[in-house]
Fold:
Amino acid sequence: MTVQYLISPDLEPLVPTDTVGHAIYRLAELDVQHLPVVSEEGELLALVSEDEMLEVGDLGTTLGALVGLGALSVTPEVHLFEAASLLSVHHLSVLPVAEADGEYVGAVRRRVLFEELAGMLSTGTPGTILILEVSLRDYSLSVLSHLIEQSDAKVLSLATQSDGALSEGMIRVTIKLNVTDTSRVRHVLEHHGYRVAAVFNEQGDDDELSLRVQEFMRYLEV
Structure:
């Protein structure tokens, strides 16, 4: 899935003649913290933020009069994994999409992109999410899948990540399974040296499930 299919038609860009006051109004109206600025010729000029606009003393100042505003963007063919990384790293609510020559194409909402990402990871399908911690040296997708299938379960989706919270050389593996009883799977995995760091089981009540989905989404955004 590429970002060109996730463009939000309601995210009309700002133009250089718009005032700071109008930009703040549009940001609030669209419930976003960022909006692109596009020239009359259709060129992406900048990506303004709510914080930047609130720091401008004169609300009548035009956006074209402001200098130093950067324009982070991706091309339409960029995969949503890369786009999600940029959104997370730069703490953006909106990601502009532009051709290599700067021609503006549209913009993608952070929420829409992460909802699509969650769908790709089968978060809406009944089952269980396992969080494993394993040495990168010992990690093998084929071996892990074989062990899970030996336990009469199927892998619906799988993602890996590493961060500062893990010991050096370790990675976190997030797996969505098609079963709700994971006792056998966990026993097999732990027997083969995998550490099960967390289990998000969808058999809980609605409040518990909602909390666990939120926690899982935080894993996705690390």
